[in-house]
Write a structure and sequence with these properties.
heterodimer; A: alpha+beta; Cytochrome Bc1 Complex, Chain A, domain 1; 16 helices; B: 462 residues; alpha+beta; six-stranded mixed β-sheet
Chain lengths: 467, 462
């Protein structure tokens, strides 16, 4: 069967190989074989996220992601869910600043169905999209927003910190969930226009990983996706570039009904895909990852001034990445006490750099995280798409861990010195108001609800937040 | 107005031939110290999962010391006879390992995950933790203080607050299950290192413990490795503890936990049922899935996909504690959040879904899709070592045979629509459900009273 024209390439790491291909309509295809388990993952990344949204229409990319599960040319209603689940598969979609992804993991013998379904909605979503679906999913998304942000203590902190850390007009300043007002304002024509502009084969990468026959898989991809026309009118997002450091300490105090004081802070970091970003990852792991980190040892173990203390890294490719510090205070401890200790630890780290043992620990932790991510076919499919969409080369996924292991202690110290400073952060302080706090007992394991979320097969949905 | 698509359409493809897959059968053995070991080789799974089960259930906690099992469990990773607390955490992370542990009604569970290249060292640390935990006064004090700090955060979480209320309502005050698993401010404050050590000495020993090891064990001499690590742990023999019987009051009623200003109401609607030894379990799994297992199940079809009241509502069955004779207890529940103004209408619809199910039953198509999903997803669900280890450990914890999961899949496939309907209807009878609503009482109380789903009581959140 004739198919496309781009030569295939191979790269290997830990026995994994990758084949790349491009259809005539521009759809990039990445295939990786692994026959250990009779399953195959299909992952489709569209190069569109909340950074492409315009003022007054925040949340549109994510709302649109929901609409992708409401039927298409040959698929009725909730058919995407019904057909995949009925085939013994699982599926979901997520939206972030930089991309929207859709994925199915199938028993091998049902792979073709997943490809057919993805092609159907890429080529014919608008046949099924109507006002009723839009109104319904708008309500669902508003309830998603309430459940995950508005009805949870500290739930809007992430949103607040982005608004603080990224300047007015910056494409990453609003989070993918969007605002209630903008969700309300989204029209059917907005959704249609969004689809026409961004949901084209030449704006997507499809990866298929697992127990597959690459030739057969490529033939199916060609059959189902090959006739979908390309579209060249995509609007590029506004430039996300910013100076290396913020240049001043930004600050907001939030008085809310929360159970304890909290200190959160965002530090501006290098873009994803750079060696400096990997160095920052190591620095944050040493300072605030896990229970042997410097901040945990200082605040939770020694000073006993905090209940939790840690750093997270949100990797972004089209704008500066963000380090996210999150400390919840213990008892009556005041925020300035915590802040002084954090500053002291960061300054000490910048001055002295990591010890050899700290480097070893952090690299071991990040290595395990990579093994976890690449240990499932769906994780691997997602990473291949990520590197293809954001950095132009899926094979980089297979060597990502090697790059983290190559970073030196000097580079870690250098990035800490340059970026983890008070004049490069946005600080969010929570001060509880009203109601006497902590007057009652609790229930541990709300496993009732946790299990409900886990055991439930996927609910299509959701935006991605910092790890 | 619709827009014609310009692509070529093809008919929906048919499935190919399914490739065989079976839930992995573990090998079982016993170390000289009496420790039961299950292991299972999963080629390609470079991150090995180790689960350890200890026969130290919550009902073994002394009166007034609820939470001592939790503090002990946390203290396992806070220093040994070889390492201080900080050193122990550092050594574990140096292996690239994670060690999670928690104390629950059936016992204490420790879960280690580590790249196979560093398995030996991590197993050594795990063995040290079990064999010779330091339980230093200062570390226990810190864990107690930290636990006390966590409590207000849990009270503020709608899901956790709902669960606390439901357990309190369902079970008699004398039952350990009625009380928070990790203790209350009063009981936790009474815990000290002597209490932790006493609990450890009384209930933790290899003879009543089980370890499950799963992952790519190619080239690993597991017997030697275990002998040098967990094999060095010693302790007196003991019989397994008997499982106390538990009663529950599921008379239909509503408890509103008042959170003024809440924009959503957290629902948790539950009662208790039998454990997995009961013959009804497979049919109940199937029926519960059809009711509320996924976005296309009956509840979400109405509450989410038609009405938009929620991001998702789920029905589930979860074993709280099994007994060898099948007299154990499971929680059967429906859970989710709905927006405040639609709380009354959402509950009304939810009850209508239950009544419709009881009146008309499930369809064969619903049953078929559910079986295909529940059985078909097995190879996906058990791709990682951690998933396999966790299920094997659940089986041991629930006194089930090692081939239980495979048997369950066969039973699910053989369960008919009528049985699944009967099981779902008797699992969720409309007049025997305790409804907990965490939300703004001023706005939801009247509409909920008007539904007539049971007597309504309002309690403060704190």
């Amino acid at each position: 069967m004739p198919m496309g024209h781009t030569a295939t390439a191979e790269a290997g790491s830990e026995g994994l190989t990758v084949k790349e291909h491009r259809l005539d309509n521009g759809l990039r295809v990445v295939l990786s074989e692994d026959h250990l388990t009779p399953v195959a993952a299909v992952c489709l990344w569209y190069d569109v996220g909340s950074r492409h949204e315009v003022e007054g229409r925040t949340g549109l990319a994510h709302l649109f992601e929901h609409l992708m599960f409401q039927g298409s040319g040959q698929v009725q209603g909730n058919g995407h869910f019904e057909l995949v689940q009925g085939a013994g598969g699982s599926l979901n979609g997520t939206t972030s600043w930089e991309r929207t992804n859709y994925f199915e993991t199938m028993p091998t013998h049902q792979l073709e169905l997943a490809l057919w379904l993805e092609a159907d909605r890429m080529g014919s979503l608008l046949v099924a999209l109507d006002q009723k679906n839009l109104d319904n999913q708008r309500d669902v998304v508003k309830n998603e927003r309430r459940q995950r942000y508005d009805n949870v203590p500290y739930g809007t902190s992430f949103e607040k910190i982005f608004r603080l850390a990224y300047p007015e007009g910056h494409p990453y300043r609003h989070t993918p969930i969007g605002s209630m007002e903008d969700l309300e304002a989204a029209s059917l024509e907005d959704a249609r226009e969004f689809f026409r502009t961004y949901y084209a084969p030449n704006n997507a990468v499809l990866s298929v990983v697992g127990d597959i026959d690459p030739e057969q898989t490529l033939a199916w991809v060609e059959k189902y996706f090959g006739s979908i026309p390309a579209y060249d009118g995509k609007r590029e997002p506004r430039d996300g570039g910013l100076p290396d450091v913020i240049g001043e300490q930004l600050r907001e105090v939030v008085e809310e009904n929360v159970p304890a004081r909290a200190l959160m802070a965002a530090y501006r970091l290098p873009e994803d895909g750079t060696r400096a970003c990997d160095a920052a990852d190591l620095a944050l792991t040493i300072l605030g990852g896990g229970e042997s980190s410097r901040l945990y040892n200082r605040l939770v173990r020694r000073d006993r001034s905090a209940v939790t203390a840690g750093f997270g890294l949100l990797r972004l490719a089209g704008a500066p990445s963000m380090a996210w510090l999150d400390v919840k205070t213990s008892g009556d401890v005041e925020v300035p006490v915590i802040e002084a200790a954090v500053d002291e630890e960061l300054a000490r780290f910048a001055a002295e750099g990591p010890t050899a043992e700290e480097m070893e620990r952090a690299q071991a932790q990040l290595e395990r995280e990579w093994l976890d991510r690449l240990g499932t076919v769906s994780g691997r499919a997602d990473e291949l798409c990520r590197f293809a969409v954001l950095f132009g080369d899926p094979k980089l996924a297979l060597t990502a861990v090697d790059r983290v292991l190559e970073v030196t202690a000097d580079e870690v110290q250098e990035i800490a010195k340059a970026r983890l400073r008070p004049d490069n952060r946005a600080v969010l302080v929570y001060e509880p108001v009203a109601g006497e706090e902590g007057a009652d007992e609790e229930e541990e394991a709300a496993e009732a609800t946790a299990a409900a979320t886990e055991a439930a097969e996927t609910t299509d949905e959701n935006e991605e937040s910092a790890k | 107005m619709t827009e014609l698509a310009t692509m070529d359409f093809h008919p929906q493809p048919q499935a190919g031939e399914a490739r065989p897959w079976a839930f992995p059968a573990p090998e079982r053995g016993t170390l000289d110290n009496g420790l039961t070991v299950l292991h299972c080789d999963r080629p390609g799974q470079q991150v090995v999962a180790v689960e350890v089960l200890l026969d130290a259930p919550l009902d073994a906690e002394p009166a007034g010391l609820d939470g001592v099992a939790t503090i002990m469990t946390r203290a396992f990773s806070e220093g040994t006879d070889k390492h201080s607390a900080e050193e122990f955490a550092a050594e574990l992370e140096r292996c690239g390992a994670t060690l999670d542990s928690h104390a629950d009604h059936p016992g204490v569970r420790l879960s280690l995950e580590v790249p196979v290249s560093r398995l030996a060292k991590a197993l050594g640390l795990l063995a040290d933790a079990l064999r010779a935990p330091a339980f230093a006064d200062s570390e226990i004090e810190r864990l107690v203080a930290n636990r006390l700090d966590e409590i207000p955060h849990e009270t503020a979480s709608p899901g956790r607050r709902a669960a606390k209320e439901l357990y309190k309502e369902l079970f008699p005050a004398t039952s350990r299950m009625s009380r928070p698993r990790q203790g209350t401010e009063e009981t936790v404050a009474s815990i000290d290192s002597a209490a932790v050590r006493a609990f450890y000495e009384k209930h933790v020993r290899p003879a009543t413990a089980t370890a499950v090891v799963v992952g790519d064990l190619t080239g690993v001499d597991l017997a030697a490795l275990l002998g040098d690590t967990l094999g060095a742990w010693t302790g007196s023999p003991a019989k397994p503890r008997p499982v106390p019987s538990v009663s529950a009051d599921d008379a239909g009623r509503v408890i509103i936990v008042d959170r003024p200003g809440a924009v959503q109401t957290q629902l948790l609607i539950g009662r208790v049922g039998a454990d997995r030894h009961d013959r009804v379990w497979p049919a109940q799994v199937l029926g519960t899935y059809c009711l509320g297992g996924t976005l296309t199940s009956r509840l979400d079809r109405v509450l989410r996909e038609e009405k938009g009241y929620t991001y998702g509502v789920r029905a589930f069955g979860q074993v709280l504690r099994a007994a060898p004779d099948g007299s154990g207890t499971a929680m059967l529940a429906i859970s989710g959040s709905v927006d405040t103004p639609n709380t009354g209408p959402a509950l009304d619809d939810l009850w209508t879904v239950l009544r419709t199910l009881a009146a008309g039953g499930l369809t064969d198509a619903e049953r078929d899709v559910a079986v295909q999903n529940l059985v078909g997803v097995a190879p996906l669900k058990f791709e990682t070592a951690a998933a396999v280890a966790s299920t094997l450990a659940d089986q041991v914890e629930q006194y089930l045979p090692d081939d239980y999961q495979s048997t369950l899949y066969r039973q699910l496939a053989a369960t008919g629509t009528v049985e699944a309907t009967a099981a779902a209807v008797s699992a969720f009878p409309v007049d025997r459900l305790v409804t907990v609503l965490v939300g703004d009482a001023a706005q939801i109380e009247e509409p909920v009273r008007a539904l007539g789903i049971g007597e309504v009581t309002v309690v403060p959140a704190e």
